Automatic annotation (TrEMBL):
Keyword Oxidoreductase: yes
Gene name of the encoded protein: astD
Active site (catalytic residues): 246, 280
Domain Aldehyde dehydrogenase: 12-462
Protein name as annotated: N-succinylglutamate 5-semialdehyde dehydrogenase
Known role: Catalyzes the NAD-dependent reduction of succinylglutamate semialdehyde into succinylglutamate.
UniProt keyword Oxidoreductase present: yes
GO MF annotations, alphabetized: succinylglutamate-semialdehyde dehydrogenase activity
Source organism per UniProt: Pseudoalteromonas tunicata D2
Leader sequence residues: none
Length: 488
Protein backbone atom coordinates (compact mmCIF):
# COMPACT_ATOMS: atom_id res chain seq x y z
CA UNK A 1 0.00 0.00 0.00
CA UNK A 2 3.06 2.30 0.13
CA UNK A 3 3.12 5.01 -2.48
CA UNK A 4 4.92 8.23 -3.45
CA UNK A 5 3.88 10.47 -0.56
CA UNK A 6 6.72 13.01 -0.49
CA UNK A 7 6.34 16.11 -2.62
CA UNK A 8 9.78 17.54 -3.30
CA UNK A 9 10.70 20.02 -6.01
CA UNK A 10 7.37 19.47 -7.76
CA UNK A 11 7.70 15.65 -7.86
CA UNK A 12 5.92 12.94 -5.86
CA UNK A 13 8.61 10.62 -4.50
CA UNK A 14 8.63 7.37 -2.50
CA UNK A 15 9.95 7.94 1.02
CA UNK A 16 13.26 6.30 1.93
CA UNK A 17 12.50 6.07 5.67
CA UNK A 18 10.35 3.72 7.76
CA UNK A 19 6.87 2.62 6.71
CA UNK A 20 4.10 4.33 8.68
CA UNK A 21 0.31 4.26 8.54
CA UNK A 22 -2.70 6.43 9.18
CA UNK A 23 -5.83 4.93 10.71
CA UNK A 24 -9.52 5.72 10.61
CA UNK A 25 -9.72 6.29 14.38
CA UNK A 26 -13.37 5.27 14.59
CA UNK A 27 -12.60 1.79 13.26
CA UNK A 28 -8.87 1.36 13.84
CA UNK A 29 -8.50 0.40 10.16
CA UNK A 30 -5.58 1.47 7.97
CA UNK A 31 -6.54 4.15 5.42
CA UNK A 32 -3.09 5.30 4.27
CA UNK A 33 0.41 3.86 4.31
CA UNK A 34 3.74 5.07 2.96
CA UNK A 35 7.43 5.32 3.75
CA UNK A 36 8.60 8.37 5.64
CA UNK A 37 11.03 10.94 4.26
CA UNK A 38 14.51 10.19 5.61
CA UNK A 39 17.10 12.84 6.53
CA UNK A 40 18.49 12.90 2.96
CA UNK A 41 15.05 13.63 1.52
CA UNK A 42 14.48 16.35 4.10
CA UNK A 43 17.78 17.84 2.94
CA UNK A 44 16.61 17.59 -0.68
CA UNK A 45 13.36 19.35 0.23
CA UNK A 46 15.17 22.20 2.02
CA UNK A 47 17.58 22.63 -0.90
CA UNK A 48 14.79 22.64 -3.48
CA UNK A 49 12.95 25.25 -1.38
CA UNK A 50 16.14 27.34 -1.32
CA UNK A 51 16.39 27.27 -5.13
CA UNK A 52 12.70 28.08 -5.57
CA UNK A 53 12.76 30.85 -2.96
CA UNK A 54 14.67 33.25 -5.22
CA UNK A 55 12.20 32.76 -8.07
CA UNK A 56 9.16 33.08 -5.80
CA UNK A 57 10.36 36.06 -3.76
CA UNK A 58 11.26 37.94 -6.96
CA UNK A 59 7.63 37.84 -8.09
CA UNK A 60 5.48 40.81 -7.16
CA UNK A 61 2.98 40.48 -4.32
CA UNK A 62 0.17 40.56 -6.93
CA UNK A 63 1.73 37.66 -8.83
CA UNK A 64 2.11 35.56 -5.69
CA UNK A 65 -1.41 36.45 -4.60
CA UNK A 66 -2.80 35.24 -7.95
CA UNK A 67 -1.33 31.76 -7.38
CA UNK A 68 -2.58 31.66 -3.79
CA UNK A 69 -6.04 32.66 -5.01
CA UNK A 70 -5.88 29.73 -7.46
CA UNK A 71 -5.37 27.50 -4.44
CA UNK A 72 -8.55 28.94 -2.89
CA UNK A 73 -10.37 28.06 -6.13
CA UNK A 74 -9.02 24.51 -5.91
CA UNK A 75 -10.21 24.29 -2.32
CA UNK A 76 -13.64 25.54 -3.35
CA UNK A 77 -13.87 23.01 -6.18
CA UNK A 78 -12.77 20.11 -3.93
CA UNK A 79 -14.26 21.23 -0.62
CA UNK A 80 -16.51 18.23 -0.06
CA UNK A 81 -13.72 15.74 -0.82
CA UNK A 82 -11.41 17.55 1.59
CA UNK A 83 -14.08 17.74 4.32
CA UNK A 84 -14.75 13.98 3.91
CA UNK A 85 -11.01 13.24 4.08
CA UNK A 86 -10.53 15.30 7.26
CA UNK A 87 -13.55 13.54 8.80
CA UNK A 88 -12.27 10.08 7.86
CA UNK A 89 -8.77 10.68 9.19
CA UNK A 90 -9.57 12.64 12.38
CA UNK A 91 -13.04 11.33 13.28
CA UNK A 92 -14.46 14.88 13.39
CA UNK A 93 -18.08 15.14 12.19
CA UNK A 94 -18.70 16.58 8.74
CA UNK A 95 -20.48 19.68 10.07
CA UNK A 96 -17.16 20.60 11.67
CA UNK A 97 -14.84 19.57 8.86
CA UNK A 98 -16.90 21.58 6.36
CA UNK A 99 -16.33 24.61 8.60
CA UNK A 100 -12.62 23.79 8.65
CA UNK A 101 -12.41 23.82 4.85
CA UNK A 102 -14.39 27.09 4.75
CA UNK A 103 -11.83 28.58 7.17
CA UNK A 104 -9.03 27.43 4.84
CA UNK A 105 -10.66 29.24 1.93
CA UNK A 106 -11.34 32.36 4.04
CA UNK A 107 -7.69 32.43 5.13
CA UNK A 108 -6.59 33.70 1.70
CA UNK A 109 -8.53 36.99 1.77
CA UNK A 110 -7.72 37.55 5.46
CA UNK A 111 -4.01 36.96 4.87
CA UNK A 112 -3.99 39.33 1.90
CA UNK A 113 -5.49 42.03 4.14
CA UNK A 114 -3.07 41.21 6.97
CA UNK A 115 -0.06 41.31 4.65
CA UNK A 116 -1.01 44.76 3.38
CA UNK A 117 -1.98 46.17 6.78
CA UNK A 118 0.83 44.78 8.89
CA UNK A 119 3.72 44.26 6.51
CA UNK A 120 3.04 46.23 3.36
CA UNK A 121 5.18 49.08 2.04
CA UNK A 122 5.17 52.56 3.55
CA UNK A 123 6.68 55.48 1.62
CA UNK A 124 7.45 58.82 3.29
CA UNK A 125 8.74 61.90 1.41
CA UNK A 126 11.98 63.51 2.62
CA UNK A 127 13.51 66.87 1.60
CA UNK A 128 15.89 65.28 -0.92
CA UNK A 129 14.50 61.80 -1.37
CA UNK A 130 12.22 59.22 0.18
CA UNK A 131 12.10 56.93 3.21
CA UNK A 132 10.65 53.44 2.84
CA UNK A 133 9.55 50.68 5.14
CA UNK A 134 9.36 47.41 3.22
CA UNK A 135 9.11 43.79 4.29
CA UNK A 136 11.10 40.87 3.01
CA UNK A 137 10.59 37.14 3.32
CA UNK A 138 12.90 35.15 5.58
CA UNK A 139 13.74 32.54 2.96
CA UNK A 140 13.04 28.86 3.60
CA UNK A 141 10.63 28.17 6.44
CA UNK A 142 9.68 24.82 7.97
CA UNK A 143 6.02 24.47 8.94
CA UNK A 144 4.79 21.89 11.46
CA UNK A 145 1.10 21.10 11.85
CA UNK A 146 -1.02 19.35 14.49
CA UNK A 147 -3.62 16.66 13.88
CA UNK A 148 -6.68 18.40 15.32
CA UNK A 149 -7.09 20.87 12.42
CA UNK A 150 -4.90 19.17 9.81
CA UNK A 151 -6.09 21.50 7.07
CA UNK A 152 -6.81 24.84 8.70
CA UNK A 153 -3.91 25.22 11.15
CA UNK A 154 -0.96 24.46 8.85
CA UNK A 155 -2.79 26.55 6.25
CA UNK A 156 -2.70 29.43 8.75
CA UNK A 157 1.11 29.41 8.49
CA UNK A 158 1.46 28.34 4.83
CA UNK A 159 -0.71 31.03 3.20
CA UNK A 160 0.89 34.06 4.93
CA UNK A 161 4.36 32.53 4.51
CA UNK A 162 3.88 32.14 0.76
CA UNK A 163 2.26 35.54 0.33
CA UNK A 164 5.27 37.15 1.98
CA UNK A 165 7.58 35.35 -0.47
CA UNK A 166 8.95 32.47 1.60
CA UNK A 167 9.45 28.95 0.29
CA UNK A 168 8.03 26.22 2.52
CA UNK A 169 8.88 22.74 3.72
CA UNK A 170 5.74 21.35 5.36
CA UNK A 171 5.83 18.52 7.90
CA UNK A 172 2.25 17.56 8.81
CA UNK A 173 1.21 15.46 11.78
CA UNK A 174 1.98 11.79 11.24
CA UNK A 175 -1.62 11.13 12.28
CA UNK A 176 -3.05 13.04 9.30
CA UNK A 177 -0.85 12.36 6.25
CA UNK A 178 -3.82 11.75 3.95
CA UNK A 179 -5.19 15.27 4.49
CA UNK A 180 -1.72 16.70 3.86
CA UNK A 181 -1.32 14.71 0.64
CA UNK A 182 -4.65 15.92 -0.72
CA UNK A 183 -3.87 19.52 0.26
CA UNK A 184 -0.52 19.41 -1.55
CA UNK A 185 -2.22 18.04 -4.67
CA UNK A 186 -4.44 21.12 -4.60
CA UNK A 187 -1.36 23.36 -4.32
CA UNK A 188 0.15 21.54 -7.28
CA UNK A 189 -3.03 22.12 -9.32
CA UNK A 190 -2.99 25.79 -8.28
CA UNK A 191 0.20 26.26 -10.32
CA UNK A 192 2.71 26.97 -7.57
CA UNK A 193 6.24 26.80 -9.09
CA UNK A 194 8.17 23.59 -8.30
CA UNK A 195 9.95 23.68 -4.94
CA UNK A 196 8.03 26.62 -3.49
CA UNK A 197 6.13 24.20 -1.27
CA UNK A 198 7.52 20.80 -0.34
CA UNK A 199 5.92 18.07 1.74
CA UNK A 200 7.94 15.76 3.96
CA UNK A 201 5.82 13.11 5.62
CA UNK A 202 6.90 10.97 8.54
CA UNK A 203 6.99 10.50 12.28
CA UNK A 204 9.20 12.17 14.88
CA UNK A 205 12.48 11.33 13.07
CA UNK A 206 11.37 13.27 9.99
CA UNK A 207 10.31 16.18 12.21
CA UNK A 208 13.67 16.20 13.99
CA UNK A 209 15.59 16.13 10.70
CA UNK A 210 13.66 19.16 9.47
CA UNK A 211 13.68 21.18 12.71
CA UNK A 212 17.45 20.69 13.12
CA UNK A 213 18.31 21.39 9.46
CA UNK A 214 20.83 24.24 9.27
CA UNK A 215 19.39 25.41 5.96
CA UNK A 216 16.06 26.66 7.27
CA UNK A 217 15.63 30.35 8.07
CA UNK A 218 12.63 29.87 10.33
CA UNK A 219 10.15 27.42 11.79
CA UNK A 220 6.42 27.93 12.36
CA UNK A 221 4.99 25.32 14.70
CA UNK A 222 1.50 24.47 15.93
CA UNK A 223 1.37 21.53 18.28
CA UNK A 224 1.90 20.37 21.82
CA UNK A 225 3.77 22.33 24.41
CA UNK A 226 6.16 19.41 24.92
CA UNK A 227 7.27 19.38 21.27
CA UNK A 228 7.32 23.19 21.12
CA UNK A 229 9.65 23.34 24.13
CA UNK A 230 11.89 20.71 22.56
CA UNK A 231 12.14 22.71 19.33
CA UNK A 232 12.76 25.91 21.30
CA UNK A 233 15.74 24.26 23.00
CA UNK A 234 16.99 23.04 19.63
CA UNK A 235 16.86 26.64 18.36
CA UNK A 236 18.90 27.96 21.29
CA UNK A 237 21.89 29.99 20.17
CA UNK A 238 20.41 30.77 16.74
CA UNK A 239 18.98 34.28 17.23
CA UNK A 240 19.05 34.84 13.49
CA UNK A 241 16.24 32.36 12.90
CA UNK A 242 12.58 33.13 13.37
CA UNK A 243 10.63 30.69 15.54
CA UNK A 244 6.85 30.92 16.02
CA UNK A 245 5.37 28.48 18.52
CA UNK A 246 1.62 27.97 18.88
CA UNK A 247 1.12 25.48 21.70
CA UNK A 248 -1.46 24.11 24.10
CA UNK A 249 -3.46 25.52 26.99
CA UNK A 250 -5.01 24.68 30.34
CA UNK A 251 -7.85 27.11 29.93
CA UNK A 252 -10.21 28.41 32.64
CA UNK A 253 -13.88 29.32 32.25
CA UNK A 254 -15.60 31.06 35.18
CA UNK A 255 -19.38 31.27 35.58
CA UNK A 256 -20.87 33.87 37.91
CA UNK A 257 -24.29 35.53 38.19
CA UNK A 258 -25.99 34.58 34.94
CA UNK A 259 -29.74 34.89 34.40
CA UNK A 260 -29.96 32.37 31.56
CA UNK A 261 -28.45 29.19 32.97
CA UNK A 262 -29.35 27.19 29.85
CA UNK A 263 -27.33 29.61 27.71
CA UNK A 264 -24.43 29.24 30.17
CA UNK A 265 -24.60 25.45 29.83
CA UNK A 266 -24.55 25.82 26.04
CA UNK A 267 -21.40 27.98 26.16
CA UNK A 268 -19.72 25.57 28.61
CA UNK A 269 -20.37 22.59 26.32
CA UNK A 270 -19.20 24.46 23.22
CA UNK A 271 -16.08 25.44 25.15
CA UNK A 272 -15.26 22.04 26.64
CA UNK A 273 -16.50 19.29 24.33
CA UNK A 274 -16.42 20.61 20.76
CA UNK A 275 -14.06 18.53 18.56
CA UNK A 276 -14.19 15.94 21.38
CA UNK A 277 -12.21 18.38 23.50
CA UNK A 278 -9.36 18.40 20.97
CA UNK A 279 -8.92 22.14 20.56
CA UNK A 280 -6.10 24.05 22.14
CA UNK A 281 -8.68 26.66 23.17
CA UNK A 282 -11.02 24.19 24.93
CA UNK A 283 -12.05 24.95 28.50
CA UNK A 284 -10.30 22.50 30.79
CA UNK A 285 -11.18 24.07 34.18
CA UNK A 286 -14.71 25.24 34.94
CA UNK A 287 -15.27 27.46 37.99
CA UNK A 288 -18.82 27.41 39.35
CA UNK A 289 -20.02 29.32 42.40
CA UNK A 290 -20.60 27.19 45.50
CA UNK A 291 -24.22 28.28 45.86
CA UNK A 292 -27.69 27.48 44.56
CA UNK A 293 -27.03 28.91 41.11
CA UNK A 294 -23.81 26.90 40.78
CA UNK A 295 -25.73 23.76 41.81
CA UNK A 296 -28.43 24.45 39.21
CA UNK A 297 -25.92 25.02 36.39
CA UNK A 298 -24.00 21.90 37.35
CA UNK A 299 -27.17 19.78 37.35
CA UNK A 300 -28.16 21.14 33.92
CA UNK A 301 -24.62 20.65 32.61
CA UNK A 302 -24.51 17.03 33.77
CA UNK A 303 -27.86 16.30 32.09
CA UNK A 304 -26.85 17.98 28.81
CA UNK A 305 -23.44 16.27 28.82
CA UNK A 306 -25.03 12.85 29.27
CA UNK A 307 -27.27 13.62 26.28
CA UNK A 308 -24.43 14.60 23.90
CA UNK A 309 -24.68 12.60 20.69
CA UNK A 310 -21.51 10.77 19.68
CA UNK A 311 -21.07 9.08 16.32
CA UNK A 312 -19.22 8.54 13.08
CA UNK A 313 -18.02 11.54 11.10
CA UNK A 314 -20.40 10.82 8.23
CA UNK A 315 -23.52 9.71 10.11
CA UNK A 316 -26.55 11.18 8.40
CA UNK A 317 -27.93 12.30 11.73
CA UNK A 318 -24.79 14.23 12.67
CA UNK A 319 -23.29 13.75 16.15
CA UNK A 320 -21.92 16.63 18.24
CA UNK A 321 -18.74 14.63 18.98
CA UNK A 322 -16.89 12.20 16.74
CA UNK A 323 -14.08 9.83 17.59
CA UNK A 324 -10.89 11.17 19.13
CA UNK A 325 -7.81 11.05 16.90
CA UNK A 326 -6.76 7.54 18.05
CA UNK A 327 -7.44 4.82 20.54
CA UNK A 328 -4.20 5.82 22.30
CA UNK A 329 -5.57 9.37 22.74
CA UNK A 330 -8.83 7.95 24.11
CA UNK A 331 -6.95 5.75 26.57
CA UNK A 332 -4.85 8.72 27.70
CA UNK A 333 -8.06 10.48 28.70
CA UNK A 334 -9.16 7.46 30.74
CA UNK A 335 -5.76 7.51 32.43
CA UNK A 336 -6.07 11.27 33.15
CA UNK A 337 -9.45 10.68 34.77
CA UNK A 338 -8.04 7.85 36.91
CA UNK A 339 -5.14 10.04 38.01
CA UNK A 340 -7.51 12.84 39.08
CA UNK A 341 -9.64 10.34 41.02
CA UNK A 342 -6.52 9.10 42.80
CA UNK A 343 -5.78 12.73 43.77
CA UNK A 344 -9.24 13.25 45.25
CA UNK A 345 -11.39 14.11 42.20
CA UNK A 346 -15.05 13.03 42.25
CA UNK A 347 -16.51 11.79 38.97
CA UNK A 348 -19.78 13.55 38.09
CA UNK A 349 -20.08 12.14 34.58
CA UNK A 350 -17.69 9.31 33.82
CA UNK A 351 -15.60 9.54 30.64
CA UNK A 352 -15.89 6.06 29.10
CA UNK A 353 -13.86 4.55 26.30
CA UNK A 354 -15.44 2.35 23.65
CA UNK A 355 -12.91 -0.47 23.31
CA UNK A 356 -11.19 -0.96 19.95
CA UNK A 357 -11.98 2.61 18.82
CA UNK A 358 -11.05 6.24 19.47
CA UNK A 359 -14.50 7.00 20.85
CA UNK A 360 -14.97 8.30 24.39
CA UNK A 361 -17.99 9.79 26.04
CA UNK A 362 -17.50 13.26 27.58
CA UNK A 363 -16.63 13.38 31.26
CA UNK A 364 -16.95 15.85 34.14
CA UNK A 365 -14.97 15.56 37.34
CA UNK A 366 -15.18 17.72 40.46
CA UNK A 367 -11.60 18.65 41.38
CA UNK A 368 -12.37 21.19 44.11
CA UNK A 369 -10.66 19.03 46.73
CA UNK A 370 -7.79 17.82 44.57
CA UNK A 371 -4.46 18.62 46.13
CA UNK A 372 -1.46 19.19 43.85
CA UNK A 373 -3.69 19.56 40.79
CA UNK A 374 -1.48 18.59 37.82
CA UNK A 375 -0.89 21.43 35.36
CA UNK A 376 -1.27 19.16 32.33
CA UNK A 377 -3.25 19.84 29.19
CA UNK A 378 -5.70 16.91 28.97
CA UNK A 379 -6.40 17.12 25.24
CA UNK A 380 -9.86 15.55 25.19
CA UNK A 381 -13.41 15.82 26.54
CA UNK A 382 -12.74 15.81 30.29
CA UNK A 383 -13.92 18.92 32.11
CA UNK A 384 -12.59 19.65 35.60
CA UNK A 385 -15.01 21.52 37.86
CA UNK A 386 -14.00 23.73 40.79
CA UNK A 387 -16.54 25.29 43.15
CA UNK A 388 -15.66 28.77 44.43
CA UNK A 389 -16.91 31.29 46.97
CA UNK A 390 -14.60 34.15 46.11
CA UNK A 391 -14.28 35.56 42.55
CA UNK A 392 -10.65 36.66 42.99
CA UNK A 393 -9.73 33.24 44.32
CA UNK A 394 -11.32 31.66 41.23
CA UNK A 395 -9.35 34.01 38.95
CA UNK A 396 -6.16 33.18 40.86
CA UNK A 397 -6.83 29.45 40.39
CA UNK A 398 -7.55 30.08 36.70
CA UNK A 399 -4.17 31.78 36.45
CA UNK A 400 -2.46 29.01 38.39
CA UNK A 401 -1.02 27.38 35.29
CA UNK A 402 2.13 27.65 33.23
CA UNK A 403 -0.10 28.04 30.14
CA UNK A 404 -2.00 31.16 29.04
CA UNK A 405 -3.95 30.55 25.87
CA UNK A 406 -7.71 31.18 26.30
CA UNK A 407 -10.00 32.15 29.17
CA UNK A 408 -13.60 33.19 29.58
CA UNK A 409 -16.17 34.63 31.90
CA UNK A 410 -19.91 33.94 31.74
CA UNK A 411 -21.52 36.70 33.79
CA UNK A 412 -24.22 39.32 33.31
CA UNK A 413 -22.15 41.80 35.31
CA UNK A 414 -19.94 44.09 33.20
CA UNK A 415 -17.85 45.23 36.15
CA UNK A 416 -16.98 41.59 36.87
CA UNK A 417 -15.85 41.18 33.27
CA UNK A 418 -13.71 44.31 33.36
CA UNK A 419 -12.06 43.03 36.54
CA UNK A 420 -11.58 39.57 34.99
CA UNK A 421 -10.05 41.09 31.83
CA UNK A 422 -7.54 43.05 33.92
CA UNK A 423 -6.50 40.07 36.06
CA UNK A 424 -6.60 36.98 33.83
CA UNK A 425 -3.46 35.96 31.94
CA UNK A 426 -4.31 34.67 28.47
CA UNK A 427 -4.04 35.66 24.82
CA UNK A 428 -7.75 35.05 24.10
CA UNK A 429 -10.24 36.38 26.67
CA UNK A 430 -14.00 36.15 25.98
CA UNK A 431 -17.09 37.41 27.77
CA UNK A 432 -20.37 35.49 27.48
CA UNK A 433 -19.13 33.52 24.52
CA UNK A 434 -17.54 30.06 24.23
CA UNK A 435 -13.75 30.23 24.48
CA UNK A 436 -13.31 28.08 21.36
CA UNK A 437 -13.94 29.24 17.79
CA UNK A 438 -11.46 32.10 17.59
CA UNK A 439 -11.61 34.40 14.59
CA UNK A 440 -8.95 34.32 11.85
CA UNK A 441 -9.36 38.11 11.61
CA UNK A 442 -7.81 38.57 15.08
CA UNK A 443 -4.41 37.63 16.52
CA UNK A 444 -4.36 34.10 17.90
CA UNK A 445 -1.79 33.05 20.46
CA UNK A 446 -1.03 32.63 24.12
CA UNK A 447 1.53 33.46 26.73
CA UNK A 448 3.59 31.31 29.10
CA UNK A 449 3.86 27.70 27.91
CA UNK A 450 1.26 28.40 25.20
CA UNK A 451 3.52 30.33 22.86
CA UNK A 452 6.60 32.49 22.36
CA UNK A 453 4.88 35.83 21.76
CA UNK A 454 4.46 35.27 18.04
CA UNK A 455 0.69 35.30 17.72
CA UNK A 456 -0.75 33.63 14.63
CA UNK A 457 -3.95 34.10 12.57
CA UNK A 458 -4.15 37.82 11.60
CA UNK A 459 -0.72 38.48 13.12
CA UNK A 460 0.94 35.59 11.25
CA UNK A 461 1.98 38.21 8.69
CA UNK A 462 4.34 39.62 11.35
CA UNK A 463 6.48 36.50 11.69
CA UNK A 464 6.46 35.72 7.93
CA UNK A 465 8.55 38.77 6.96
CA UNK A 466 11.12 41.13 8.43
CA UNK A 467 11.06 44.92 8.05
CA UNK A 468 13.63 46.75 5.95
CA UNK A 469 13.99 50.49 6.50
CA UNK A 470 15.54 52.47 3.64
CA UNK A 471 16.41 56.10 2.96
CA UNK A 472 16.73 56.54 -0.80
CA UNK A 473 18.04 59.37 -3.00
CA UNK A 474 18.26 59.03 -6.75
CA UNK A 475 21.70 60.64 -6.92
CA UNK A 476 24.65 60.99 -4.63
CA UNK A 477 24.57 64.63 -3.45
CA UNK A 478 26.18 66.75 -0.76
CA UNK A 479 24.04 67.61 2.27
CA UNK A 480 23.06 71.28 2.65
CA UNK A 481 25.50 71.64 5.56
CA UNK A 482 28.55 69.56 6.48
CA UNK A 483 29.22 68.13 9.96
CA UNK A 484 31.57 70.24 12.09
CA UNK A 485 35.24 69.52 11.41
CA UNK A 486 34.68 68.32 7.83
CA UNK A 487 36.28 70.09 4.86
CA UNK A 488 35.67 68.76 1.32
N1 LIG B 1 -1.97 27.22 20.00
C1 LIG B 1 -2.47 26.70 18.88
O1 LIG B 1 -2.67 27.43 17.90
C2 LIG B 1 -2.82 25.26 18.80
C3 LIG B 1 -2.19 24.30 19.58
N2 LIG B 1 -2.49 22.97 19.45
C4 LIG B 1 -1.88 22.00 20.33
O2 LIG B 1 -1.39 20.89 19.58
C5 LIG B 1 -1.44 19.71 20.36
C6 LIG B 1 -2.09 18.62 19.55
O3 LIG B 1 -1.37 18.42 18.38
P1 LIG B 1 -0.30 17.25 18.17
O4 LIG B 1 -0.37 16.89 16.73
O5 LIG B 1 -0.50 16.18 19.18
O6 LIG B 1 1.09 17.97 18.49
P2 LIG B 1 2.56 17.34 18.46
O7 LIG B 1 3.42 18.28 19.22
O8 LIG B 1 2.58 15.92 18.87
O9 LIG B 1 2.96 17.36 16.92
C7 LIG B 1 3.02 18.55 16.16
C8 LIG B 1 4.01 18.36 15.04
O10 LIG B 1 5.34 18.25 15.54
C9 LIG B 1 5.97 17.06 15.05
N3 LIG B 1 6.91 16.59 16.07
C10 LIG B 1 6.64 15.84 17.17
N4 LIG B 1 7.77 15.66 17.89
C11 LIG B 1 8.76 16.32 17.25
C12 LIG B 1 10.14 16.55 17.50
N5 LIG B 1 10.74 16.02 18.56
N6 LIG B 1 10.85 17.31 16.63
C13 LIG B 1 10.24 17.86 15.56
N7 LIG B 1 8.94 17.66 15.26
C14 LIG B 1 8.21 16.91 16.09
C15 LIG B 1 4.83 16.15 14.76
O11 LIG B 1 5.21 15.14 13.87
C16 LIG B 1 3.79 17.10 14.22
O12 LIG B 1 4.04 17.37 12.87
C17 LIG B 1 -2.22 20.08 21.60
O13 LIG B 1 -1.31 20.26 22.65
C18 LIG B 1 -2.88 21.40 21.25
O14 LIG B 1 -3.16 22.20 22.36
C19 LIG B 1 -3.41 22.56 18.53
C20 LIG B 1 -4.08 23.47 17.76
C21 LIG B 1 -3.87 24.90 17.86
O1 LIG C 1 -5.87 30.42 13.18
C1 LIG C 1 -6.93 31.03 12.94
O2 LIG C 1 -7.26 31.42 11.81
C2 LIG C 1 -7.88 31.34 14.06
C3 LIG C 1 -7.68 30.47 15.22
C4 LIG C 1 -8.56 29.25 15.21
O3 LIG C 1 -9.05 28.83 14.19
N1 LIG C 1 -8.78 28.68 16.37
C5 LIG C 1 -9.65 27.57 16.54
C6 LIG C 1 -8.93 26.27 16.51
C7 LIG C 1 -7.62 26.19 17.23
C8 LIG C 1 -7.60 25.06 18.22
O4 LIG C 1 -8.19 25.27 19.26
O5 LIG C 1 -7.04 23.99 17.97
C9 LIG C 1 -10.44 27.77 17.82
O6 LIG C 1 -10.18 28.74 18.52
O7 LIG C 1 -11.33 26.99 18.08
Amino acid sequence: MSHAAQFINGQWLEGQGALFSSLDPAKNSVIWQANAADAKQVDLAVNSAREAYYVWADLSFAERLAVVKNFALQLEANKEQLAQTIGLETGKPLWETRTEVAAMIGKVAISEKAYLERTGTVENPMPQGKAFIRHKAHGVVAIFGPYNFPGHLPNGHIIPALLAGNAVVFKPSELTPLVAELTLKLWQQAGLPAGVINLVQGEVETGKALASHRGIDGLFFTGSSRTGHFIHQQFAGQPGKILALEMGGNNPLIVKDVADTKAAVHDIIQSAFISSGQRCTCARKLFLSADQQGDLILAQLIKATQAIKIGHFDDEDQPFMGSMISEAAALSMVAAQQQLVSLGGKILVELKHIAGTGFVTPGIIDCTDVKDFPDDEHFGPLLKVFRFTDFDAAIALGNDTSFGLSAGLLSDNQADYEHFLRRIRAGIVNWNRPITGASSAAPFGGIGASGNHRASAFYAADYCAYPVASVELEQVSLPTSLSPGLVL
